[in-house]
Amino acid sequence: MIPSRITAVLGPTNTGKTHYAIERMLSYRTGVIGLPLRLLAREVYDRIVAVRGPGVVALVTGEERIVPPRAAYWVCTVEAMPEGMGCDFLAVDETQLCADPERGHVFTDRLLNARGLHETLFLGAETMRGAIAALVPGVQFMHRARMSELSYTGSRKISRMPARSAIVGFSVENVYAIAELLRRTKGGAAVVMGALSPRTRNAQVEMYQNGDVDYLVATDAIGMGLNLDISHVAFSSLTKFDGRRMRHLEPQELAQIAGRAGRYKENGTFGVTGEAPPLDDAVAQAISDHQFQPVSKLQWRNARLQFGSVKRLIATLEEQTQDQWLSRVRESDDLASLKALSADAEVAARATDGPSVKLLWDVCRIPDFRGISQGEHVGLLTQIYNDLHQFGHVSANWFGLQVRRIDRTDGDIDTLSKRLAYIRTWTYVAQRKGWLIDEYHWRDETRAVEDRLSDALHGALTQRFVDRRTSILLRRLKQKESLLADVNEKGEVTVEGEFVGRLEGFRFRMDKAGSPDEAKTLRQASVAALVPQFHLLADRFYNAPDPEIDFTEQGGLMWGDQAVGKLVAGADPFKPQVTAFVDEEAGPDVIAKVQRRLQHFIDRKIASAFEPLLSLKNDETLTGAAKGFAYRMAEGFGIIPRSEVADEVKALDQDARSALRKHGVRFGQFTVFLPLLLKPAPTRLRLVVWSLVKNLSEFPESPPPGLVTVPAAKDAIPGYYAMAGYRAAGERAIRIDMLERLADMLRDKDSRGGFEANADMLSITGMTLDQFADLMTGLGYNAEKGEREKVKASRTPEVPTQTSQEQPVEAPVESSGDRMVETPAEPPQELPGDPKVGAAVEMETFYTFTWAARQARPNRVQSERPRGKSKPAGKPTGRGKPQGDGGRPQTFAAKPKREKQIDPDNPFAAALAGFNKG
Q1: What is the largest CA-CA distance in the chain?
Q2: Pure H helices in 580-623
Q3: pTM (predicted TM-score)
Q4: 3-state SS string over 711-773?
Q5: How many angstroms from the chain centroid is the CA of residue 714?
Q6: Using N-to-C axis directions, what is the helix angle for 354-364 and 374-391, rounded to 10°?
Q7: Average pLDDT over residues 216-234
Q8: How far apart (Å, rounded) are the C-alpha atoms in residues 737 and 506?
Q9: Are 280 and 327 in contact (CB under 8 A)?
Q10: Can you tell me the mean pLDDT for 804-814?
């Protein structure tokens, strides 16, 4: 039989030692490889499965066990390597961990005792050469040189860290703080820690490897064989807590981590960042040259245990060694747990024979993944041991309850990490053969819970530490690829599927960024991607029909609900100019196209709304005074208070007036105007154009359409009410066309002797009597308020029903001023229920309106209308109520009037003339 060949393959990182071991193992029929981390074991397992298929590859770790029936190749953590299998090939990776205070004794045991039938490989650093030569007889050495160079670059700020860098921290808090800083400044980072499950770790590494992020924040877990595309490694600290105390990292430990930079033939660099002090020149040089002090002591614990009693087991675990290369390991967690459990009376009573003591030792080796206190961990181990000893298995109900309590994916990163640590304990228990009745079910169940928690933790880490949007856009910009932008119907802009902001018309409103660097990236990517969108949008806008475009009362120009420009005053009041709201990045062509379309819109809008006025202004047939008055109308945008042009109106002859009337000009008593321009649309546009001419900072709004009167503001801009189509009078302003209708009603009233308002006057103004009195005062009238007895309709006694031959008796009617009062033919008979003679008299309020004195009326137009004359039959007495004989209300009748020439400017002149003749 050919003796087993033992080879120590030594060298620094990036020498391909692990790859060499995998190739050697696959050249044999069977093999076992022990790796330092569960994460690395999973990576190697996936690589071998890709080559040989899952049917012949087993994965065995403390928390994971995948063993197909025909397993030929076993990938394990060093602690989980099966013993006595008789495999053809065996390899142990990272043997320099034999010197580790925590786990070193396990690696030392494999170095001393684990062998393959045909070949054994020990992989590690060159510092292990002396120890391996002394402890492993017949070993051969193979040195493998690093495939790339490693150089020191000194200290560098995290914000200036180059892409494809790994920043190393030695605490969870430190790792999280660095990742948060990178998210704000560089778009994010992947996070890799030894406490992560393989599923979470793989998802984070994949995010880094495929370029979603350019930075990796990790603990020293990346120093153990994880193959990543890292160009630079930066240490944020040079000290770590090793479970017992804070200590400085040894140069070889720094080298193990720094060696992750520069994979295969790509050179790498390392340095420090944050609060870490610069490395000593000697240490930096040693790392670059891979020259370190050789390992002189290996951690050792007796592996030949005796289970006769608990005391005997403890004694064998604490046995000393005389070998100068070996040093007994300090008290480990499993030994401390054994001593604590043996002090429990019930446990001591149960552990009295070999199998019971061995079972107790197996339970004590359950790692404290949860990191809880020693007392709590011992209590958990006690429950498990008592169940196993009494029932032969752990209680399924109790075990299921523990798993269900953890099976929740809500919470933050710390909460999910804690649950993941807890499930690792139950996963470890489920992997122990025979500890549960339905162990395969619980293996699948705990694995499923771990997967759900792993996915949730990956999502939480990504959400917190990765600005996916910024990282994707940065990668695309660096690759100089054309970016794909999309704008939905809401104007939301996505670039490469990531929301970056909103397009408001032709202006891009970037989404809120967490930092200036992020904002810069967003802007660059968005602008680059939106240029084609701007051109498409400009084409669509240019071809949009006018109804899709509108102006606001503040002079803004809208396309749908998006602002696309504003109006500015031009040289001609009827030709305002436009300013387009378009980002400069859209380009001059887009800006010019949008501006042209807006100018076309407003030009057509003015031509349509002001057509009667523009026709009047541009009528070449008008001459002399008519032409001048047409220009005055244009200057007033079709509305001029008559008082302002009284002289010009008088100067117009009948031909001039007739020519102006053909264009719709109405010469009212109070206003000269074009009635068509009082409609809501022209009024709204007129106020905007007038505000531009006045250079107002805030444009007044047009009154709501359909209102006859509106409240009159005391601080209104001079000329506003005329432009709005109203005239201010007292506390309210009345629409000028309705004011002219009121003026027509007042023509035949006796404004000297006095008259009262009738129902028609109140109806067309929509006012109460008091409001109407205020309006009339504002128009130049005096309003004298008085009270009088209210005249009620008389009640007639019931008469017999008339036959068809009988005719009804009509009561005569007499006139009482403007009120028609019915007078009964016979005195009414007193009916039951009629008020007594001494009952209270109901009074009513009335106003008598007379024309004010000339000096009290600034804009007198009395001469423009004929005045009727009437005299009261009696003198007014009492409280302003006209009284006749006997105190009864008197009636007033107007005397026949002398024919007066009707003002030809009055649009109702013809009707009035015909009425008089009739």
Answers
A1: 156
A2: 588-609, 611-617
A3: 0.60
A4: ECCCCCCCCHHHHCCEEEECCEEEEHHHHHHHHHHHCCCCCCCCECCCHHHHHHHCCCHHHHH
A5: 44
A6: 140
A7: 84
A8: 42
A9: no
A10: 37
